[in-house]
Amino acid sequence: MALIECSECGHQVSDKANTCPQCGAPVGAEEGSEVQSEQAQGKNKVTGIIALLVLIGVVYVCSSSGDGGGAEAEHSELAAWVMCQQFVEDKLKSPKSADFPWGYSDYTTHLGNGKYRINAYVGAQNTFGADARTQFQCVVQYADDEKWRLESLTFGE
Q1: Helix (H) or strand (E) segment spanning residue 92
Q2: Helix, strand, or coil here: 50?
Q3: What is the distance between the alpha carbons of residues 146 and 77, in angstroms, rounded to a whole number?
């Protein structure tokens, strides 16, 4: 570490310091060090253009991916699981107390053509306020326009 003289106040300042601690003037920066060479500026422009082109490409791919997705992209095991939960809650005496298991894939079977069967259980309060766990089987069919149809819903013990 070398000490240099501040050009403003003459105080001794480390050559590693950005500003003089006495007067706050910038030190250690030689004239012209802030000006980049033309070659470095050219590299920055090329890098910026490439980044812009990549960004445009990503936006194009993301915006066009929804056009050819078809019906398979609009339904899934997770969507069927969520819809069955809603259908089950509609039948419960206390839907706010409904407690479904985690891990929808363990309970959901794709039957083909957008039809799913869910065999699971729900814990909820019954008419008397007691917690009860009830098995259920739900079959749902994906219709169109993000709509689901309940094919069957049966409750067991």
Answers
A1: none
A2: helix
A3: 14
What does DSSP say about strands 3-5 and 115-125: parallel, antiparallel, or unpaired? unpaired
Compute the distance between CA of residue 78 and CA of residue 19 in angstroms, rounded to an integer.
59
Q: What is the pLDDT of residues 54-75, one digit of tens each?
A: 878 777 777 655 544 444 457 8
Contact 118, 108 (CB under 8 A): yes
Tell me 75's DSSP state.
-
State the CB neighbour count (10 A cutoff) for residue 141: 17
The DSSP call for residue 144 is S
Half-sphere exposure of 115 (CA within 13 A, CB side): 6
According to the model, what pLDDT value does residue 40 have? 60
Specify the pTM. Answer: 0.52
Contact 6, 21 (CB under 8 A): no
What share of residues in the chain are helix, strand, coil (percent, to 5)? Answer: 35, 30, 40
Cα separation values, 40 from 33, 36, 62, 89, Å: 13, 6, 33, 64
For residue 76, give the nearest of 65, 84, 87, 68 by alpha carbon: 84
Q: Residue 62: which H helix or E strand, with range?
A: helix 38-64
